[in-house]
Specification:
Layout: H1 2-22, H2 33-55, H3 63-89, H4 95-102, H5 116-139, H6 145-161, H7 168-193, H8 196-204
Helix pairs in contact: 1-2, 1-3, 2-3, 3-5, 5-6, 5-7, 6-7
């Protein structure tokens, strides 16, 4: 009961962060990215407090006994942290960096930690979000962003191909990555057909 209460509070905070970040998909949202990321990071302060509280609700050595309770919300929080870091620097957040943002451990031996499969699931949710962002970037007239997203997602896909995924839900999610790659490829192809990728390349010359 106690665990459930904290998990519900975490889910609420995750929804608030998601609502905030969803704003980047709107036309004017691109100008506001730094402000939205800063606000999201403030919300992660609440997440850290809630996770601190969660740690006190069960014996430290029984993490996996209760893991199912918070597994889903933790994956969402990984995705949200990864999305913030991507929007800020267009890089993939490491598991250690996510653990730091969430105020938990990266190592299993040190108590309440970020399970590797939860981290990977969160990263795969990010891929779907970026596929959506690639489409919406074109609508907003930002033609270079889909090219950068395409490079990032292809590198991500190559990384996942090296893994031997035994977890069923993770495998299913990884299957979805193929569709994300395809969706982004279609956006990039469409830009090249319309000659807009050249324009994007020229525009991107002076910026990241």
């Amino acid at each position: 009961q106690e665990i459930r209460k904290v998990v519900q509070a975490l889910e609420q905070t995750a929804r608030e962060i998601l609502t905030l970040l969803q704003g980047v998909h709107q036309g004017a949202g691109f100008q506001d990215i730094p402000k939205k990321c800063q606000k999201a990071r403030e919300h992660f302060g609440t997440v850290r407090t809630q996770l601190e509280s969660l740690k006190t609700k069960f014996p430290a050595d029984q993490y996996y006994r209760f893991h199912e309770h918070w597994r889903f919300v933790l994956q969402r929080l990984v995705f949200l942290a990864a999305f913030v870091v991507y929007l800020e620097s267009e890089t993939l957040v490491t598991r250690e960096a996510v653990a730091e943002i969430l105020g938990i451990e990266a190592d299993r031996e040190r108590g309440f930690h970020l399970d590797i499969e939860d981290y990977l699931s969160g990263v795969l949710i990010l891929a779907s979000e970026l596929a959506r962002l690639a489409v919406n970037s074109v609508t907003a007239g930002d033609y270079s962003r889909p090219l950068r997203i395409s490079t990032f997602i292809n590198e991500l896909d190559s990384g996942f191909r090296l893994l031997n995924l035994k977890n069923d839900s993770l495998r299913k999610r990884y299957d979805g990555l193929k569709y994300d790659v395809k969706k982004i490829e279609e956006v990039v192809y469409d830009l090249s057909i319309r000659g807009l990728n050249k324009e994007a390349a020229v525009g991107a010359g002076g910026e990241k």
